[in-house]
Write a structure and sequence with these properties.
The protein has one domain (27-154): 3-Layer(aba) Sandwich (Rossmann fold). Helix content is 44%, strand content 19%. The protein is built from six helices and five strands; from the N terminus they run αααβαββαβαβ. It has helices spanning 3-10, 13-20, 27-38, 56-65, 95-105, 124-145, and strands spanning 46-50, 70-75, 85-89, 109-114, 146-154. The longest helix is centred in the C-terminal third of the chain and has 22 residues, at 124-145.
């Protein structure tokens, strides 16, 4: 990461808010705002967090679903443990990991979140296509995993021209 990127990050209000509130990522602040606006999470919900590392979204979800809720986080990258969050490490694109997740889930989820992103190649067209493919895979999973009336939230990054 370049010096300019590090410097600009320090001035980012989401980054500063996340650090102040001890969240693992600035995305946690944005998810919190989405939840406050749309009421995604309820006490006791079962939530699946795809592409969970480093865990900012899982932290927010854990707070919002309470002790009666359940949070299952999945990522190919390692993630430091979060109390009350079950972590499944593996590549979600692998059908075996999705099968393992369904076994682990045991009942329909109330919410499926996806913050999955591909490893960037530097080729915009390829990176966008890979990101959209991951979003489509997450949607296919959500259609099968969600209870009727459940919620699905996916974040897809924008590649600037």
């Amino acid at each position: 990461m370049g010096k300019a990127w590090v410097k600009s990050r320090r001035h980012d209000r989401f980054y500063r808010a996340a650090k102040r509130q001890q969240y693992r990522s600035r995305a946690a602040i944005k998810l919190s705002q989405i939840d406050l606006r749309y009421g995604l999470f309820r006490d006791g919900d079962v939530v699946v967090d795809l592409g969970a590392a480093p865990g900012g979204w899982s932290q927010i979800v854990r707070e919002r679903v309470g002790r009666a809720g359940r949070v299952i986080a999945v990522d190919i990258a390692p993630m430091a443990p979060i109390e009350g969050v079950e972590f499944l490490r593996g590549d979600f694109a692998d059908p075996r990991i999705r099968s393992e997740l369904f076994e682990h889930l045991r009942k329909p989820a109330d919410v499926v979140l996806s913050d999955m992103a591909p490893k960037l190649s530097g080729n915009r067209a390829v990176d966008v296509a890979r990101g959209l493919d991951l979003a489509d895979t997450a949607l296919s999973f959500a259609i099968r995993a969600l209870r009727p009336g459940g919620a699905f939230l996916v974040k897809v990054f924008q590649v600037r021209a």
